[in-house]
UniProtKB/TrEMBL annotation, chain A:
<feature type="transmembrane region" description="Helical">
    <location>
        <begin position="67"/>
        <end position="88"/>
    </location>
</feature>
<dbReference type="Pfam" id="PF00528">
    <property type="entry name" value="BPD_transp_1"/>
</dbReference>
<keyword id="KW-0813">Transport</keyword>
<dbReference type="GO" id="GO:0005886">
    <property type="term" value="C:plasma membrane"/>
</dbReference>
<feature type="transmembrane region" description="Helical">
    <location>
        <begin position="108"/>
        <end position="128"/>
    </location>
</feature>
<keyword id="KW-0812">Transmembrane</keyword>
<dbReference type="InterPro" id="IPR035906">
    <property type="entry name" value="MetI-like_sf"/>
</dbReference>
From TrEMBL, chain B:
<keyword id="KW-1133">Transmembrane helix</keyword>
<feature type="transmembrane region" description="Helical">
    <location>
        <begin position="12"/>
        <end position="35"/>
    </location>
</feature>
<feature type="transmembrane region" description="Helical">
    <location>
        <begin position="75"/>
        <end position="95"/>
    </location>
</feature>
<feature type="transmembrane region" description="Helical">
    <location>
        <begin position="107"/>
        <end position="129"/>
    </location>
</feature>
<feature type="transmembrane region" description="Helical">
    <location>
        <begin position="241"/>
        <end position="259"/>
    </location>
</feature>
<feature type="transmembrane region" description="Helical">
    <location>
        <begin position="210"/>
        <end position="229"/>
    </location>
</feature>
<protein>
    <submittedName>
        <fullName>Spermidine/putrescine ABC transporter permease</fullName>
    </submittedName>
</protein>
From TrEMBL, chain C:
<dbReference type="InterPro" id="IPR003439">
    <property type="entry name" value="ABC_transporter-like_ATP-bd"/>
</dbReference>
<comment type="similarity">
    <text>Belongs to the ABC transporter superfamily.</text>
</comment>
<dbReference type="Pfam" id="PF00005">
    <property type="entry name" value="ABC_tran"/>
</dbReference>
<keyword id="KW-0547">Nucleotide-binding</keyword>
<dbReference type="InterPro" id="IPR008995">
    <property type="entry name" value="Mo/tungstate-bd_C_term_dom"/>
</dbReference>
<keyword id="KW-1003">Cell membrane</keyword>
<keyword id="KW-0813">Transport</keyword>
Length: 284, 275, 348
């Protein structure tokens, strides 16, 4: 490549990639800088670890980290675990498989907030679920389901919204495996389980990693589901961050933001690595 | 034929589950949106005692629904066009020039997808304050949406650029076509589906986006998701929320159906052939 | 080692008959070749035998046991796929090892068998590569090796050498045959190359649109094809229809064909009968005072012989000769020796 070509490529990349790197880079940089007291909007900027020290000693913050990680990991696992068998089932077309696929993917069209509303509607104190359970006589009176302490409502919502996405990625990966390759494995004596472990799993692991990582990051930074259906006595990281920002405490918000980035990055690296080990059955 | 039986059972099961997880919630929403305020729908009744379109009319006339719709449906196409324009040169480079580090560049383009949206929103706002650019909020939202959804546009257009066949370009050139004529004859037909798909995807994403619109836009700019958020939070009236939810969902369904058609016709494996 | 009995096998693909009432017995340790034009159902038959395709009608017996409903993983067969079907995420070694691991062959034994096959197929330097790092021919040999290493009682090859150069093909062909003999495998082999079929097989099955045309040893198939289709498919043949003339002597029959009268010691039947016959181009003897004659319309030098297209009264046919002094436009005379006139079943 000549210098001229390099200049052309660089200029071409500027408005797209350049902007991405600049904006996202700045955003991440600001988050980290502000968490150390730099880059302040109002007031003095001074390098300090006080904000980190402050929050690391704060129980609410620590609970949020644990809570958001829990939501992220569980949502990713539930979505993928549900999506896998469905994707395998739908790999080869059969009569009605298109319809089933569309029904399963329908939640992709529904905005998360709408999903939350629909769900709350169903599980609310006088909602249809409570009515139904009383009607068939399992429960004596209505139960309070909406803001349960284990965030089951949030997890159901996350799975409801994200499973179709995992399904989409996994079906794509699965359809990339040719029939002959699976037949060859059968011919060499591999039963259903061996075919899954040795052929399907390793060949779809990258699709699965993509699904896990994206779902995990989305769920770790969840705000809307948490506010509407989450436990009252716990806050997600995004909720905490927005709270600090609303009070004008940018530095603490930055600490929480930086934490979220760290959790998102490390969490997805760990999850991606783990899924590779689990799916491949070996380190390689 | 055992397999066939199993398949049928599974299908019945999925349809039954879909009934629970799609149909019931939507029917409930529709019913709630039709509750007439004259008589409340209490727990002991199967159907609302009085049904009317009062809530729909009322929401339409007396809430911020109209301005929110206007805002959303102005911001989204603007963001879609801006995103397309920004993606174009980069996609050209990624799709048609073989330069060292191209794969790294492609991966870097996915960056906005891995940074949680609330972080982008909050610290983009911090950046705006810093630069003193807080005057025109809608512009800030358009810009942020365009950049955050750039990965989609770049990805789609890169694939389109890759499917442009070199022999078409060469043939056009051979026949004496200039730059513009070459673009029209060789590039545009291959790019057109990608351009539509990119516009549509960014449009849908932007209509749905909550974090940036909420944080960057507050308190002046209200989009539909922001409105819905407050309708589900501080101003919670169930029938009103039902109306808003349905309004947010319906156009999506149509857009997505349209998109599905478009993506099928633009399937690169069908269009590229060999060469 | 196993015998295969195929009984009245039919396969419909939504109305299209890929196989029709096909019956065939393969003996233990036999090397049987399927030969036939593209789309005649060869792959379909192999896939039914290995269990991937369920036949519409009919039965498959392995060693006398009906396996029609047995799943592929439970049949002691190995198929070498026409499309290779290598596992893309596994190295060559792991691909070869896959079936052995499934069968729980001890590690030491596995190593020996793989080393053996790799050496015979010339895959030694490729063992740690992934399939997409191999050339087409190398991939094909891995696919072949993956089936051979299993030493199953029945081994099925779907055009396993189609992508190899002529030299490698000869060499691998010998190896396949040797392994098959050493381990007494029953083999069914699909090829498009009739020379390969003639060279390797114990018996050859000629298929035509899902039905068997003829099953025989290579020698008999070549010398005594039953139909014009078989005659023309195995080697070349000039096929004519003719009418039986009055016999010359009690042991010599005379047949009138469009290019002249042929004499043969083969029983052509009663006078006046309409028959179909053929002769091989290489059996014609060019000879100035031959009983037959024609004009050479084109010639193609093939190395050890020359291919001539000859015409008599507008009817074209082919003659192969070792003579090089014949030119286009020449008029030649020739004889077709009596024993090389092959009488065919009338139905073409
Ligand atoms: N799954 C299928 N559905 C419909 N028709 C099929 C299917 N598989 C094969 N066929 C048809 O059955 C016929 C036989 O196919 P097969 O693959 O057995 O041919 P083949 O003899 O192996 O040909 P080739 O030498 O080209 O490999 C073909 O006409 C083919 O179109
Ligand atoms: Mg075939």
């Amino acid at each position: 490549m000549t210098a001229r070509q390099w200049i052309t490529v660089t200029l071409l990349l500027m408005p797209g990639l350049g902007l991405i790197v600049w904006l996202i880079g700045t955003v991440v940089y600001i988050a980290f800088a502000q968490s150390f007291g730099l880059y302040n909007i109002n007031g003095e900027s001074a390098l300090t670890t006080a904000y980190w020290a402050d929050l690391l000693g704060n129980n609410i913050y620590l609970r949020s980290v644990r809570y958001s990680t829990y939501i992220g990991v569980m949502s990713a696992i539930f979505s993928v675990v549900l999506a896998y068998p469905l994707a395998i089932w739908l790999r080869k077309p059969f009569t009605g498989s298109m319809t089933i696929g569309s029904i399963l993917k329908a939640p992709l069209l529904v905005h998360g907030l709408v999903a939350a509303f629909l769900f709350v509607n169903v599980i609310s104190y006088h909602g249809i679920l409570n009515q139904f359970m009383q009607w068939i006589g399992i429960w004596d009176g209505p139960h309070r389901l909406q803001n349960d302490n284990n965030a089951i409502a949030v997890l159901i919502l996350q799975t409801w919204k994200n499973m179709p996405f995992a399904l989409l990625l996994l079906t794509g990966a699965l359809q990339g495996i040719s029939d002959d390759v699976l037949d060859a494995a059968r011919d060499l004596g591999a039963g259903s389980w061996a075919r899954f472990r040795k052929i399907i799993a390793p060949l779809t692991v990258s699709g699965m990693q993509a699904a896990i990582v994206i779902i995990f990051i989305g769920a770790v930074s969840d705000f809307a589901f948490q506010v509407i259906a989450g436990p009252i006595n716990r806050q997600s990281l995004a909720q905490l961050m927005v709270g600090y920002k609303g009070r004008g405490d940018w530095n603490s918000a930055a600490v929480v933001g930086a934490t979220m980035i760290i959790v998102a990055l490390f969490g997805s690296a760990i999850l991606a690595g783990l899924s590779k080990i689990v799916m491949r059955g070996r380190l390689k | 034929m055992n397999r066939l039986r199993l398949n049928n059972i599974l299908m019945a099961l999925v349809i039954a589950l879909a009934f629970i997880w799609l149909f019931i919630p939507f029917v409930m929403a529709v019913l709630w949106s039709l509750v007439d305020p004259s008589q409340p729908w209490t727990a002991d009744k199967l159907l609302p005692p009085a049904m009317s379109f009062y809530r729909w009319v009322n929401m339409w006339q007396n809430s911020s629904l109209q301005p929110a719709l206007l805002t959303s449906y102005t911001l989204a196409p603007s963001a879609a066009i801006l995103s397309l324009l920004l993606a174009f040169p980069t996609s050209f480079a990624l799709g048609r020039i073989a330069f060292p580090g191209r794969e790294v560049a492609k991966t870097l383009c996915l960056l906005p997808l891995v940074v949680p949206p609330f972080i982008t929103a909050v610290f983009f706002t911090a950046l705006l304050y810093r630069l003193g650019l807080t005057a025109w909020r809608p512009g800030a939202i358009i810009f942020a949406h365009a950049v955050v959804f750039l990965p989609f546009s770049i990805r789609i257009l890169t694939v389109s650029f890759e499917t442009v066949r070199q022999d078409h370009i060469d043939a056009a050139r051979d026949l004496g076509a200039g730059h513009w004529a070459r673009f029209k004859a060789a590039y545009l037909p291959a790019l057109r589906p990608g351009i539509y798909a990119s516009l549509l995807i960014v449009f849908i994403q932007s209509i749905e986006e909550f974090a940036i619109a909420f944080i960057v836009g507050s308190p002046d700019v209200v989009t539909i998701p922001v409105l819905l958020y407050s309708a589900l939070g501080q101003d919670y009236v169930r029938p009103n929320a039902a109306v808003l939810s349905l309004i947010l969902v319906i156009p999506n369904v149509f857009l997505m159906l349209f998109l599905e058609r478009l993506l099928k016709s633009a399937n690169p494996t069908l269009a590229s052939g060999k060469g | 080692m196993a015998a295969i009995n195929i009984q009245k096998l039919s396969k419909d693909f939504s109305g299209f008959k890929a196989l029709t009432e096909l019956s065939l017995d393969v003996r233990e340790g036999e090397f049987l070749t399927l030969l036939g034009p593209s789309g005649c159902g060869k792959t379909t038959l192999l896939k039914i035998i290995s269990g991937f395709i369920e036949p519409t009608k009919g039965h498959i017996l392995l060693n006398g046991k009906d396996v029609t409903k047995v799943p592929p993983e439970a049949r002691d067969t190995a198929l070498c796929f026409q499309s290779y079907a290598l596992f893309p995420h596994l190295s060559v070694r792991e691909n070869l090892e896959f079936g052995l691991r499934q069968k729980k062959v001890p590690a030491l034994d596995r190593k020996d068998r793989i080393a053996d096959v790799a050496e015979k197929l010339g895959l030694g330097p490729q063992m740690d590569k992934l399939p997409n790092q191999l050339s087409g021919g190398q991939q094909q040999r891995v696919s072949l090796g993956r089936a051979l290493v299993m030493r199953p009682s029945v081994i099925l090859f779907d055009e396993p050498l189609s992508n190899l150069d002529a030299k490698l093909r000869d060499q691998v062909r010998l190896e396949i045959r040797r392994i098959q003999k050493d381990y007494k495998l029953t083999a069914i082999y699909v090829t498009h190359d009739q020379a390969e079929a003639l060279a390797m097989s114990d018996r050859i099955v000629v298929l035509k649109s899902g039905q068997i045309e003829q099953v025989d040893t290579p020698e008999r198939l070549y010398a005594a094809p039953r139909t014009g289709f078989v005659a023309d498919f195995i080697g070349n043949a000039n096929v004519f229809t003719g009418r039986v003339l009055p016999q010359k002597t009690p042991t010599i029959w005379r047949i009138e064909t469009p290019i002249g009268i042929l004499e043969t010691g083969n029983n052509a039947g009663t006078e006046g009968a309409e028959i179909t016959l053929c002769w091989r181009p290489e059996n014609a003897e060019i000879n100035d005072d031959g009983a037959l004659g024609g004009t050479v319309t084109s010639k193609a030098f093939q190395g050890h012989f020359t291919d001539l297209m000859v015409e008599t009264k507008g009817v074209p046919y082919r003659i192969q000769t070792s003579r090089t002094d014949v030119n286009e436009g020449d008029t030649i005379g020739f004889n077709v020796p009596g024993p090389s006139v092959i009488l065919l079943e009338n139905a073409q």
